[in-house]
Amino acid sequence: MTHEFATLTTDDLVTGEAVALDLPPASIGSRIVSGLIDVVVTMILFVAAIFVFVVAALQADYALIWASFIATMIVVFLVYPATMETLTRGKSLGKLACGLRTVRDDAGPITFQHAFVRALVGFVEIYLFEGVPAFFSALISSRGKRLGDYAAGTYVVRDRVRLRLAPPTLMPPPLAAWARSADIASLPTGLALAVRQFLGRLPTLDPASRVSIGGRLADQVSRYVAPPPPPGTPPEAYLAAVVASRRERDQARLYREAELRRRLVRGRSA
User: Fold this and answer.
1) What is the rounded CA–CA span in Å between residue 264 and residue 228?
2) According to the model, what pLDDT value does residue 9 have?
3) Is 213 exposed, middle or buried (0-12, 13-18, 19+ CB in 10 A)?
4) How far is C-alpha 216 from the chain's CA centre?
5) Considering just the CA atoms, what is the radius of gyration of the chain in Å?
6) Is 223:192 a contact under the CB 8 Å cutoff?
7) Which of these, 30, 27, 5, 1, lies nearest to 18 by C-alpha position?
8) Which member of 19, 171, 233, 270 lies 3.0 to 4.6 Å from 229 by CB, making a disulfide possible if both were Cys?
9) pTM confidence score
């Protein structure tokens, strides 16, 4: 199914009401600052750990000292950053300072596996090659992804973004009675998003496009609605009624579920 208003960008999240939310990728500048903070913190930890291990192994043989050095590198450069990002759901100290967060490509929270792969590749591209591969990779990527992000399937977003949602679609009064008695199933996410975008852009559409696009969307929505609206109903009014009715029904369902949970909690505590 293809239509003009069902295009999702790679940085869109879709809420339960099919509202596209944009998670903007972090800028290269903020990522460089965040990375420098993390490098400084990591090197301080590395030097401190090396000092502790060397003092503890002064009376030991060379093999033990070398094993301690390898273990220190693994803990500082792999275990520490992977654990930090896992426990903070994608935030290192540098990201916390700069308001950034690592997410999966589908915008979900990362796991230890994602964080470990990022740390493993990051050791090579940041510490062994002084960050040059990471810089050029982020420079040419639309999401600012370094090589570790490509390997792990992640990217870094700005975490301090205020999302502004469009006002909800209102129920057309002439269709309120029909909508209350109609059987309206949940629309597929892509179709619901297309309808919302169409209704939000109605003032900018010329009459021919409004009729053409509205008619196609109404035809697709009709597969999930019964009975059809009253004869002569404009497509945009029909679509607005469907979206508004689904929102009202979903809100009512969520309210009933919340009330049921509250009653169950009170019953167990009594």
Assistant:
1) 39
2) 43
3) buried
4) 30
5) 27
6) no
7) 5
8) 233
9) 0.55
